[in-house]
Each structure stands twice: as C-alpha cells, then as structure tokens.
C-alpha cells in the first residue's frame, strides 16, 4: 500500500475502440478502466503498434473494446490495497490485453490504462518513453515462448539470464529482425545460448547489433534456407521459435530441425496439415497467457487464467528490470508517427500492408 496522494482522474477519455465491425475508430467520452485492488492506473505517454492490433478486431470483433497492447506512461493512481514499490509519477512501461472481450474498457490506445504493477517496468533514464513503449509485448511473449514449461522450457536446462547454459546450443529465431525476435536474440545470448536467426539481408546489421554473431544470420529468401540452417547447426537443431508463422516459415522451421526432431514454438495457430513431422512438438503461445487473466477468445486462442504463468512473468519482469537498468537489453528501432491517437490509424494500415521492416511503429499521446 502506498501513501502517495492520488490525483483526481477524469471521468472519461479519448481512445481508439472497435466499431460495430471490429475496425478501429477514434472515440471521445470513453469511460476510464476502473481502479481495482492489486492494480494501478497509468497515464499513457507513448504507445507501440503490433500486428495483433488490427488482427484482433477482424478475427474477434468486440464493438466498443479499447484497442492496443504496448505502452509507456506515468503512474497516475494506485489502489489503497495494491502492494507495490512504485510511486505516483514513476515512468513505466508494459503491456495490456487490448480488444479484450472480457475487459473491453482497458487497452493501450487510450489516455489511461489499468495494469498489475508487478508486470510494469520502470523506464531507465537513458531510455526514451517511445523506446520503452516497444518492450511490453515482446518481453511477455518471450517469457511464454522461451521459459514456460509447455514451450521451449529453457528453465529446465537451465538457460536463463541468471543461470546461463553451461553447454551452449543453437536456437532458431525465425524472423529475427521483428521486435519480438530482436529481444529473443538478446535474451538467448544472455542465457548462454547460440541464436541463429533468419531475416532480410538489409536487417543483418540490426540483428548483429542485438547479439547475432557472424554466420548466425541467414537470408530468409534463399531457396535453401532450411538446408543452410541445418548446415550451420550441424543437423542438431532441437529448438525453433517462429516469430513470423506463415506457411513458408512453418515449413522452413520443421525442415531445419534435426533428424530426431525437437520443439517448435509459433506465435499463431498452425494448421495440422502444416505440422508435417511427428517428432516435432509444437506449441502456440500468446503473450496474454502471462497476464493471469482468462482469455475469452475462440477457435483455439482462448485460455484460462494461469497462476503459474503469471508467477513466471512476474519473475522474469524483475530480471528484465535489472537487465534494462544495467544497459544489457536494447530496444527495437522505432519509427515515430505523428498525430497522436489519430496517427495510429495510419500506422495500422502500414502494418497491414507489410511495408514495415526492422522498425516498430510508435506514437506519442
């Protein structure tokens, strides 16, 4: 519980919400999310865009739901029954489940956001709020993909930033120049492992700056990409993390894994017909799984609140805080859009067009 005086918050806000068809629209007089025990309210400073911000409305229309997941901001209110080391006025960043059927009043593309404080990161002084806004979704997704027991389960090696692997082994990051991929590469390197990534040659400098060694970046467009990965991993690859998840990436990851198979983690559902090898164990992960809340979607995207995964996320966000404070974790390059929340509409169109590469779109509110 905190003794800081809590300023009065407005009764309503401007936000991007889903219209009757699930498409984004700018709305005023949108209610603020209610402050609950165990949570804080953050006044938004910057937001970052993710493909799911336009995919969610198309796949799971929830009219009136606030859109958006990645944010940075300033702690504006703390519930009296919330235990936290944070103070009002602290600069923080994180993620929230936007476009959420079970909690439509809470999303990042708004002036105020409700969050569990244990899943917030204090923004270091050497990081801009725009840079900080890129972190939440990528870090949470990587917790679920790299260390959850039903995914790559690297804790069991162990291979973590706190307990690096004694014997390094390769981990494929397919889509290494994505925002999630560049964070995964750094976390794998900090965990004592050998990330091998695919990306466009124009992004080789980016992935090298995020910890990829010479010879560990592969042009994803080369026709023999899977064979090249097998060659560079000596046919012993057992861990593949697909940050793209389309038919081509699935096929390449399955083919690149060694003869005895291994684990394949995707960020989208994968049709059974694409899962071509029985010796490959597949798991689809969502960052939402780490929030400790029910995900009331459908068609395989739904999940129940998981206390163990929430505890895992809390554990690793404390690790991430230390890495950020020590300057050991670099954010993804940003491309700033003008126009505040109105600029998000343009940004979602850019994302949907596939023209964004090697940058994460950010907007200042």
TrEMBL record:
Keywords: NADP, Oxidoreductase. Residues 19-363 form the Enoyl reductase (ER) domain. It comes from the Eukaryota. It holds the Pfam family ADH_N. One of its GO terms (molecular function) is oxidoreductase activity, acting on NAD(P)H. CDD domains: enoyl_reductase_like. Belongs to the zinc-containing alcohol dehydrogenase family. This is Zinc-binding dehydrogenase family oxidoreductase. It comes from Pseudomassariella vexata.
């Amino acid at each position: 519980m905190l003794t800081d005086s809590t300023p009065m918050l407005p009764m309503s806000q401007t936000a991007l919400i889903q219209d009757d068809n699930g498409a984004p629209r700018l709305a005023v007089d949108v209610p603020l999310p209610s402050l609950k025990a165990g949570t804080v309210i953050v006044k938004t400073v910057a937001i970052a865009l993710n493909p799911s911000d336009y995919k969610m409305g198309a796949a799971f229309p929830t009219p009136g739901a606030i859109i958006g997941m990645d944010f940075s901001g300033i702690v504006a209110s703390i519930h009296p029954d919330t235990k936290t080391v944070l103070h009002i006025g602290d600069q923080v960043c994180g993620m929230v489940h936007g476009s959420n059927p079970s909690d439509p009043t809470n999303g990042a593309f708004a002036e105020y956001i409700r969050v569990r404080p244990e899943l917030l990161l204090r923004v270091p002084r050497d990081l801009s709020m725009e840079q900080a806004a890129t972190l939440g979704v990528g870090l949470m997704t990587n917790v679920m993909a790299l260390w959850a027991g039903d995914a790559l389960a690297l804790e069991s090696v162990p291979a973590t930033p706190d307990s690096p692997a004694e014997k390094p082994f390769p981990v494929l990051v397919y889509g290494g120049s994505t925002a999630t991929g560049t964070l995964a590469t750094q976390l794998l390197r900090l965990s004592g492992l050998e990330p091998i990534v695919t990306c466009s040659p124009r992004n080789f400098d980016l992935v090298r700056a995020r910890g990829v060694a010479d010879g560990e970046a592969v042009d994803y467009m080369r026709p023999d990409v899977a064979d090249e990965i097998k060659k560079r991993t000596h046919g012993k690859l057992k861990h593949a993390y697909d940050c793209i998840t389309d038919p081509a990436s699935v096929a390449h990851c399955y083919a690149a894994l060694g003869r005895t198979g291994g684990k394949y983690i995707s960020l989208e559902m994968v049709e059974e017909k694409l899962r071509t090898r029985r010796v490959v164990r597949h798991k689809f992960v969502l960052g939402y799984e780490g929030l400790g809340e029910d995900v009331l979607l459908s068609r395989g995207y739904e999940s129940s609140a998981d206390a163990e995964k929430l505890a895992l996320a809390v554990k690793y966000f404390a690790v991430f805080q230390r890495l950020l404070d020590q300057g050991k974790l670099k954010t993804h390059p940003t491309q700033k859009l003008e126009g505040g929340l109105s600029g998000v509409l343009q940004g979602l169109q850019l994302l949907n067009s596939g023209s964004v590469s090697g940058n994460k779109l950010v907007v200042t509110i």
